[in-house]
Design the sequence.
C-alpha cells in the first residue's frame, strides 16, 4: 500500500506508482493498493487494484494538529 506524493506533481506521482508496480511484479504481489482521491486516475492507469477515495465520498475532514 502506498500514498502518492503530496506535492501534486503528477509526473513524480506517476513515476512512484510505476516503480511500486514494478516492485510488486518482481515479488509476485497480485494486489496493489496505491492512490487516493486526488490521484485516483493516475493510480488506476499505473495498475492500482485498490484505491482509497474517502474524500470523494465523504468530503474534506478537519486536520488535527
Sequence:
Amino acid at each position: 500500500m502506498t500514498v502518492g506524493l503530496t506535492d501534486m506533481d503528477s509526473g513524480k506521482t506517476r513515476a512512484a506508482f510505476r516503480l511500486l508496480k514494478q516492485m510488486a511484479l518482481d515479488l509476485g504481489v497480485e494486489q496493489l493498493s496505491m492512490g487516493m482521491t486526488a490521484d485516483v486516475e493516475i493510480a488506476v492507469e499505473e495498475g492500482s487494484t485498490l484505491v482509497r477515495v474517502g474524500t470523494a465520498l465523504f468530503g474534506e475532514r478537519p486536520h488535527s494538529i
The beta strands are 33-36, 50-52. The first helix runs from residue 10 to 27.
